Amino acid sequence: GAGVSQSPRYKVAKRGQDVALRCDPISGHVSLFWYQQALGQGPEFLTYFQNEAQLDKSGLPSDRFFAERPEGSVSTLKIQRTQQEDSAVYLCASSSRVLGGNQPQHFGDGTRLSIL
Amino acid sequence: AQKVTQAQTEISVVEKEDVTLDCVYETRDTTYYLFWYKQPPSGELVFLIRRNSFDEQNEISGRYSWNFQKSTSSFNFTITASQVVDSAVYFCALSGGTGTASKLTFGTGTRLQVTL
Q: Residue A39 and residue A42: Cα distance in Å, rounded?
């Protein structure tokens, strides 16, 4: 597709369950970002990939959060043993690699995760 | 550390009024980039503009204009003759200038409500 695609759009899980969120970036975009957006707040950075390499994971809140992008395209954000505070919208963004400056990040619609 | 402050939580205007959304930022980087994104009720973040720290020229795009002032660390956004379709949450964001991609630091957003 033309834009960043995320699935599922909504996810409800019981506390303690594992969840996996998928992101399909814009074709050809080498940079991929994950953000977490709590209700009424701005997005907060979780992790960044350049191709298949995870270059920055400083925003992951705990070791229950894990992200991968094994072939440098689709990425999966996994949350193990979910807790209620994990409830948020998870946004994925991609950008093209152009020397000379930070290119705009293009965002998907997000996955709204609710932990019961 | 980088920080973005959007002091206005919510603004309500009547259609055709002009409205300015404020953004103040903090960074120690000498090279950095500033962005504005729009988040309509559907949830997707829509890129509006990118500005680098070396270009202080104001920019106009249709009804939108941006005023970047390094001296006051501000990057304000004005919508002229607002329309109901402008109703959304608007985020100002900042990224560092090193490398070809960098994480975004967002403000908490300003919710704009335009009524007839």
A: 8
